Every structure is written in structure tokens, then in C-alpha cells.
Amino acid sequence: QQQVKQSPQSLIVQKGGISIINCAYENTAFDYFPWYQQFPGKGPALLIAIRPDVSEKKEGRFTISFNKSAKQFSLHIMDSQPGDSATYFCAAGSGGSYIPTFGRGTSLIVHP
Amino acid sequence: DVKVTQSSRYLVKRTGEKVFLECVQDMDHENMFWYRQDPGLGLRLIYFSYDVKMKEKGDIPEGYSVSREKKERFSLILESASTNQTSMYLCASSRGAAKNIQYFGAGTRLSVL
Are B89 and B22 a contacting pair, CB within 8 Å? Predict the structure, then answer.
């Protein structure tokens, strides 16, 4: 049973466009929602994270939107660049667990 | 910066061989993890450890074992490699106080022929 559902599996965007990746979760105990970015040949690295007491967090061109009632959160990449081409994983965790639950990943390609 | 180092980037082994994948972290993290990454399946947890000599099964432990004799080192062992264990293996670590921020190594791509 997938506890964190991520969509789409792949995404192609033109340079300058907006990339949007969505995640939905089921476990209401989750209280931490990180996003990881993985470039080819590298391991995932933390990109940005949000806690459920805020509805939005922005860091540069990257924004997380969080909807607690719908149990959904999303990553928006504004002005997408070819250098943003990577695989993105959403995740959810709780203070009582050592282990985040990952979505299955989204492969993003930004065409120049 | 946290550094998680996996000993090999690429490995090619034959079916039935015993395979050791090594991982070392330099930030004194309590928790260490082994994942495998397959297209369309994301990251699947094999084993994790929250302390020296402690280990817990993840979602897909069958065919694998682990060893953590020192805090900085976490080894994944394939007792008898099979072709369905061909995959990318990722090691990660995290601090006990910030359990949900994981730091990953670059991965080991294992091919079992």
C-alpha cells in the first residue's frame, strides 16, 4: 500500500515554464514533508521541506504548497531551467519514526 | 558538509556470489539506511540501523543482511546474489534528533550476471 502517492511519473517542460509535482498522503500522523532532488549519477539530496503549520514555503524558484485538509502537497518550480532536470522525490515523516515514506519519484526534463 | 561514501560506484558480480556493499558516513549520525532504487518503484528500504550492532528490517529484506560494527560504517550483504538483485543501491544516514532529514551517498550500481 502506497502511503505517499506521487504524480506524474515523468514531466517534460520547456525552459521558463512552471513544473508542478503533486503528492498525496494517507497517514495523518505525518508532520514533516521534505522534497529530495536527484541528479543522474548522484544520490538524492534534500531540496526543501515543510511542516504542516504553514501552507506554503518558498526558497528561490522552488515552492512547496501544503493542503492539510486534502492531505496533499506539491512542488512548484518557477522559471524552470535545463539544470533543474532531475528526479524529484516527495516524502513524509513523523517525529515518532526514523524513516520517511517516499513517493515513487518524478523524472523532470526541462528542454532548452 | 555531511559526507556519505559508498565504496564502489559500479559492481559486476555473478549469480551465487556473496557481495558486500560498504557505506561510511563522517558526521557521527546515529541512523543509517540501505535502499534500492529501481525505475518506477522509487526508493525501497532494505534495512536500517539506529545504533551500533542494531538493525531493523525494512520493506524488502529478503536476500539481504547487514552489519554495523562501528557507528560510521554500515554494510549491506547479498548472501547469494541473484539476477533480480541487479539494481542501484543507496546508503543514507541521519541524525537521531532530525530523523527525517536523510543524507545519501552517490549509489552503487550492481549488475548480477
Answer: no
Q: CB count, 10 Å around CB of B11?
A: 16
pLDDT tens digits for range B37-69: 998 899 999 999 999 989 999 999 999 999 999
Largest CA distance in chain B: 41
Asked if B42 lies within 8 A of A104 by C-beta distance, the reply is yes
- Let me know if B86 is exposed, middle or buried by CB neighbors in 10 A (0-12, 13-18, 19+): middle
Does residue B7 carry a pLDDT above 80?
Answer: yes
* pLDDT higher than 90, residue B110: yes
Q: What is the rounded CA–CA span in Å between residue A85 and residue B81?
A: 33
Chain A, 49 to 78: residues with Cβ < 8 Å from chain B are 49
